[in-house]
Design a protein that fits this description.
The complex is a heterodimer of chains A (141) and B (564). Chain A is an alpha/beta fold and 141 residues long. Chain A contains 5 helices and 5 strands. The chains are: A alpha/beta (141), B alpha/beta (564).
């Protein structure tokens, strides 16, 4: 049996928002679920996030914002990733995101939006499914 | 050791015997037939909750020494002799969004509905010292608070609100000196002398590094700004609360009740020490220190927490720092209900959560209170939600009777036992932090952050395992429709704000601005108090970003941690 490589996830805080409880809890939960997780820290620009995604060779970028800047920032992260040839990286997000913003974020290339109260296991499961589908079963990266 | 004056040793011995009989008899029998719902009962702090509390649990308490009378050391039962019989707590809703015009209208709405103090929420660029036209401000202007670029915006913010008639709290930290100077300048324009201005700046930078994230400068110059404000206000603005040492955000980030008390008071100790090191007398600034706590879900634990914090701080100020003025011993605090406990699911349930959290704050003797709005897990609160939140406070004040006698839960075996326990556990943490070299060192090495993160993660695991029930989230769920009527910040606010800023820059006296910014830079490089130089800058309409940039140039910038 082939050894399964670990899924690599970058958890990022775009913009100026300092609320990082959710981002850190998700990061730890994904790590406990067997993934490699890197956290960017606060106040990252879309360009910095894309650069970190490239350097760290990640499969997934998880974005968190609770400041209401998601509609502005998240699509720009997707664009920055595409500009670096990372269009196949799965982008997911969470925070205070009104339901009516979800379709727009998805059109912009965000794979899924996880609102407050989402069990972390649901996020891990989504990642496994998406990354598995993109890379073929069993392959993490 | 038992306090023989209140508890007769013989009576206690009899009680102990009787309790053993009860535990071994009726309780045991009942447990055999009906096991309790949980294997163990614990507070968020990890403290075990006993089945029953009796005088045995507080027999070590000495009434006069440990509780005393309201308005007297150690203030366990409250900081004023008559508490809410004299005056209710200040009802102070944190508000701000979009432009200064919009926020001014929300302030007037709140005042019309019986709010008794103002509390300004600033947007993130303002909190981090960027003008609205800064590239990093993109997408954030006016979002979580009002956008302020210059004195002009603060003039608009308080237009028609006489500053000698309200007290104003400003949630501003790294650039607190700048906003304070702007407030003073608006007061001056309204003809109100600085010494008559009443309010609070948060100005608590240590918790920004540990939990909230709106830092700009490294710790050392940041502490200088804090102590410069202490010294300045002692002379110029004696009624102003120079700092609001905040456990609120530490708790929101995941800390337990004990950690909230411990890390907040440890930060308080660091500020006092820094001010003493800067040559200030403890009683010159001690009376103007204020605090800010969270009111979370565990109703009785929260009541005990407020009492424990009050007693612990009184002892620290008197015994550790030798403060002589009783006002220096008083822990006066603002409370906000716990934002983190609001659910996006069945948001109307939040009204009830907020109500008992607010009641806990009142029973804990708070000086002012913000009640959260039901829709805050979804968006900024809409007007009708804010009104319900304010009404919640008014209902408690005018209808519940909870404010009619002082510290009504004092003397409850559980509350007193828990108050002792929280004080002890928090004291132990403070000793640990002292051993590391104090709060700044403990934060720098990541100790405080790691403790908070561990607690946050444990809380999440408890929710996911179902051990902690969150109604509407992991139990009693329903299919829900999308909520309607959420507040949206006008996306054009940034455009308008930038237009205003450009017009201001064209209009103001550019030479005066440049000159005063230069003076500020020289002052920052030296040792003199920064406040007068900042005040001179804001008066000629130097912007918040320009002033912050000067300080960034001299002090450098802090980089946050990426540790998990």
């Amino acid at each position: 049996m082939l050894e399964e490589t670990k899924v690599r996830v970058l958890v990022a805080k775009p913009g100026l928002d300092g609320h990082d409880r959710g981002a850190k809890v998700i990061a730890r939960a994904l790590r406990d679920a067997g993934m490699e997780v890197i956290y960017t820290g606060l106040r990252q620009t879309p360009g910095q996030i894309a650069e970190a995604a490239l350097q760290e060779d990640v499969d997934v970028v998880g974005l968190s914002s609770l400041s209401g800047a998601h509609k502005h920032l998240f699509p720009r992260v997707v664009e920055a990733l595409r500009a670096k040839g990372l269009g196949d990286v799965v982008v997911i997000c969470g925070g205070i995101i009104p339901a009516e913003d979800v379709p727009e974020l998805k059109r912009a290339g965000v794979a899924e939006v996880f609102g407050p109260g989402t069990p972390t296991a649901a996020v891990a499961e989504f990642i496994r499914r998406e990354v598995g589908a993109k890379k073929g079963f069993g392959a993490g990266r | 050791m038992a306090d023989d004056r209140l508890f007769d040793p013989k009576a206690l011995a009899e009680l102990k015997e009787a309790e053993a009989r009860w535990s071994g008899g009726p309780v045991k029998k009942t447990l055999e037939r009906f096991p309790e719902q949980k294997k163990e009962y614990k507070l968020t702090s990890g403290v075990e909750v006993q089945r029953l509390y009796t005088p045995l649990d507080i027999a070590g308490q000495d009434y006069l020494e440990d509780l005393g009378f309201p308005g007297e050391y150690p203030f366990t039962r409250g900081v004023q002799p008559t508490m809410f019989r004299g005056r209710y707590w200040t009802m102070r809703q944190y508000a701000g969004f979009g432009s200064a015009e919009e926020t001014n209208a929300r302030f007037k709405y709140l005042l019309e509905h019986g709010q008794t103090g103002l509390s300004v929420a600033f947007d993130l660029p303002t909190q981090i010292g960027y003008d609205s036209d800064h590239p990093l401000a993109e997408g954030e202007v006016g979002k979580v608070g009002v956008a302020i670029d210059s004195l002009e915006d603060v003039e608009t913010l308080f237009a028609g609100i006489p500053l000698d008639k309200v007290s104003t709290s400003m949630t501003i930290n790294a650039p607190a000196a700048i906003l304070l100077a702007m407030y003073q300048a608006v007061g001056e324009k309204q003809g109100i002398p600085a010494r008559a201005l009443n309010g609070t700046i948060q100005n608590d930078i240590l918790k920004e590094y540990a939990a909230r994230g709106t830092y700009i400068f490294p710790p050392k110059p940041s502490m200088r700004l804090v102590t410069d404000i202490f010294a300045y206000c002692a002379k110029e603005m004696p009624e102003w609360n120079t700092i609001s040492i905040s456990g609120y955000h530490i708790r929101e980030a995941g800390a337990t009740a004990v950690q909230e008390v411990a890390f907040t008071l440890a930060n308080g100790i660091a500020y006092v020490q820094a001010a003493l090191d800067a040559g200030l007398d403890v009683d010159s600034f001690g009376p103007r220190l204020s605090f800010f706590f969270n009111s979370h879900l565990d109703f009785l634990e929260e009541v005990a927490k407020f009492r424990a914090a009050r007693r612990l701080w009184a002892r620290i100020m008197k015994e550790r720092f030798g403060a002589k003025n009783p006002r220096s011993w008083m822990l006066r605090f603002h409370t906000q209900t716990a934002g983190v406990t609001l659910t996006a699911q069945q948001p109307d349930n939040n009204i009830v959560r907020v109500a008992w959290q607010a009641l806990a704050a009142v029973l804990g003797g708070t000086q002012s209170l913000h009640t959260n709005s039901r829709d805050e897990a979804l968006a900024l609160p809409a007007e009708d939600s804010v009104r319900i939140a304010l009404r919640t406070q008014q209902l408690i004040a005018y209808e519940s009777g909870a404010a009619d006698t002082i510290d009504p839960l004092g003397g409850s075996y559980y509350i007193e036992g828990l108050t002792d326990r929280i004080e002890q556990e928090a004291g132990r943490y403070i000793e640990k932090i002292d051993a590391m070299g104090g709060a700044p060192a403990a934060i720098e090495r990541g100790f405080v952050q790691a403790e908070i993160q561990d607690s946050a993660y444990r809380y999440q695991l408890d929710v996911e395992s179902g051990e902690r029930v969150i109604v509407g989230v992991n139990k009693f769920q329903v299919e829900e429709k999308e909520p309607r009527g959420l507040l949206r910040v006008d996306p054009e606010v940034a455009v308008r704000q930038n237009g205003k800023l450009a017009r201001l820059k064209a209009r103001r006296d550019g030479a005066a601005v440049a000159g005063r910014l230069e003076t500020l830079e020289r002052t920052a490089r030296g040792k003199e108090n920064l406040m007068p130089a900042i005040y001179e800058c804001v008066k000629v309409y130097a912007t918040l970003g320009e002033i912050s940039d000067v300080l960034r140039k001299v002090f450098g910038e802090y980089r946050g941690s990426t540790a998990l």
